[in-house]
Specification:
Elements lengths: L14 H6 L4 H8 L12 E3 L2 E3 L3 E3 L7 H8 L5 E7 L12 E5 L10 E3 L6 E4 L8 H17 L7 E6 L9 H17 L4 E5 L16 H15 L4 E5 L7 H11 L5 E4 L3 E3 L1 E2 L12 E5 L3 H18 L4 E5 L5 H10 L3 E4 L1 H5 L3 H8 L1
Helix pairs in contact: 3-4, 5-6, 6-7, 7-8
The structure holds flavin mononucleotide.
Length: 361
């Protein structure tokens, strides 16, 4: 019998199209009759200090709404990050949102990468962090938590909500700080188990796009977020530091450590993208390259962060993300000092990857 492939995000379609058509494991099982086996991962695991059944999480991005979160919670993931939301409705960039690229391991100093006509294990991400209005995403977050309860798993999968501030041109620093804190409060009021603040997004050309590169401001935002989150774990997502700039990361960590529970690294490696006819795509602006091509750079960053945390005697936890698609990759992040990991690209391309990693463990 031919078992149909698990449904996944359709990159030829818009964000809204995919938002409105979340996959359903129940429907898929009705078509195939086969319940995927979810092997335990022996060990004692935590995420931002909270107990979890495995170190496997989905990063901010692939989970557009609660139905997407629930799908991956049923496919072997124990931390589900609700795609970055804002304090107001926000449109998505036009297609292409995901452009496969053909490249080796990136270091961040490449003049560009080439788009590929084939499917590839890395792609350029260009969404611009779209968001529903808070009333819509808050209701959905609340319902998602309830649906996790219904799964009856102990410990229950965690729902982490990723947030970002939205500032109008001409806004002052206080507006940015306040809007981050407001988003965190909205997420917690809706029932988020953790809040992940996105301090990095190479495809958004506003000051929230490179907050992680402004350590003093990042520290002030993190302090406001900590005040807003109280006892709820606060994670800060950061972008890539080139190897020759890794020392700059030390100042960022010094600012974040007193406030954040964990730092999530690495968002992506930014690069310009060359189209099929040699032209620069996206008006020559850089986009975040995500997937396999970022794994080595991200691992080096996790190692650097770990050394800094140990030397400083800080309580800051590290969540590893970037290019993970096998159990060996998960181990390499844990060995480098990560508490847990998150996947995005590989999980979108192979929705059963969490189950496969469990099989390989
Ligand atoms: C489709 C897609 C959308 C993403 N959207 C966001 C986002 O909204 N917020 C964010 O912090 N990171 C976002 N990211 C970055 C991922 O969270 C992650 O850091 C990155 O993809 C590296 O992991 P990977 O190599 O497993 O893909 C997105 C990534 C992808 C692939």
């Amino acid at each position: 019998m031919n078992v149909p492939a698990l449904p996944s995000y359709d990159i030829r379609q818009t964000y809204d199209w995919n938002y409105r058509r979340p996959p359903s494991l129940v429907e898929w099982m009705e078509g195939s009759g086969k319940v995927p086996e979810r092997r335990e991962m022996p060990g004692s695991w935590t995420f931002a200090g909270l107990p979890v059944a495995s170190p496997l999480g989905i990063a901010a991005g692939p989970l557009l709404n609660g139905a997407w979160c629930r799908y991956y919670a049923q496919l072997g993931f124990d931390v589900l990050t609700y795609k970055t939301v804002r304090s107001r409705q926000w449109e998505c960039y036009p297609l292409p949102n995901l452009t496969p690229v053909d490249c080796g391991q990136l270091a961040g100093d490449e003049p560009g990468v080439s788009a590929s006509t084939e499917s590839a294990s890395s792609w350029a991400v260009s969404f611009g962090m779209p968001s529903q209005s808070p009333s819509i995403w808050q209701e959905d977050v609340q319902a998602t938590k309830e649906s996790f309860r219904e799964l009856g798993r102990k410990p229950q999968p965690l729902l982490s909500v990723s947030v970002v501030a939205t500032v109008a041109p001409g806004a002052v620093e206080a507006d940015l700080v306040d809007d981050y804190a407001k988003c965190a409060r909205l997420a917690i009021a809706a029932g988020a188990d953790c809040v992940e603040a996105n301090f990095s997004c190479p495809n958004v050309s506003t000051c929230d796009g490179d907050l992680y590169l402004q350590p003093a401001l990042a520290g002030r935002v993190a302090a406001a977020l900590r005040a807003a989150t109280g006892d709820v774990p606060l994670l800060v997502k950061v972008g890539h530091f080139r190897d020759d700039r890794l020392e700059d990361a030390a100042e960022l960590l010094r600012q974040l450590a007193p406030q954040a529970t964990a730092v999530v690294t690495t968002n992506s490696v930014a690069s310009r993208v060359r189209g099929a006819n040699g032209e620069w795509m996206f008006s020559g602006q850089r986009r975040g390259i995500c997937g396999a091509a970022t794994r080595e750079a991200s691992l080096r960053q996790v190692e650097f962060f770990r050394r800094w945390v140990d030397r400083a005697g800080a309580a800051l936890r590290i969540i590893g993300v970037g290019g993970i698609s096998t159990a060996a990759h998960v181990r390499s992040y844990l060995d480098a000092g990560a508490e847990a990991v998150q996947l995005a690209t590989a999980a979108m391309q192979q929705p059963d990857i969490g189950l496969r990693i469990r099989d390989q463990w």
